[in-house]
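Second opinion, please. Pick holes in both lines of this record:
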Amino acid sequence: MKMYYFTDPMCSWCYGFSPVIKKVKENYPGIDLEIISGGFSPGSTQVVDQEYKDFLEFHWNNVTARSGQYFDHSMKFISDSFRYDTEPSSRALAVVKKLAPNEDFQYLSLMQKAFYVEGKDITNANVLAKLAEEVGVEQHVFFENFFSDELKLKTQQGFQFSRQLGVQGFPTLLTLQDGKVDVITRGFQDYGGLSVSIDGRLKSEAVSEPKKGPSCDDTSCDFGGLDIF
């Protein structure tokens, strides 16, 4: 089953959800799970003044209460030049998806830790490049791609895909089959509740799949394409 995980590196509820999505990857290896950075606030010019800092702290406290995830409330990333623009980190994720596709979840985790725990500015290309080095992407290769028109477009396509599917917030986990969107979860959910939803979706998909192998109805038996001698 193909499943899409819509997230944003600078979305606090996505950070809270990260241990849950990690368990999903570990416990459902048969699911093809793809990250899409949906664009929480790309291009934002929002400064982190005291009012916005209070806003962030309120939500961070809620995330900790639900998920147990730790936040460094000193917010060392705040500076005169910092803006809460989520496009650069989203683009960095697109770069790693291209160059080291098996490391995309690890890279997302590194960005979240850098931002929420270490207070690093992940709108800064140099910070993002150093984090990419930890998953095997050389800095000069990262920069070549990060500043390319190709990856800028790819990032925007991720944002557009999110809007086209009607994603209204992050994190969102959904499937897309034959043009039909099936939302598994919209917003934070603990693993227990999420696993029930996933199991139900897997069961439903198994029932709807054409039967393979021998089967019989009231009048005949179908050997499912097997050669019978």
Summary: The two ends are 34 Å apart (CA to CA). The CA atoms of residues 18 and 109 lie 7 Å apart. The beta strands are 2-7, 32-37, 172-177, 180-186, 215-216, 221-222.
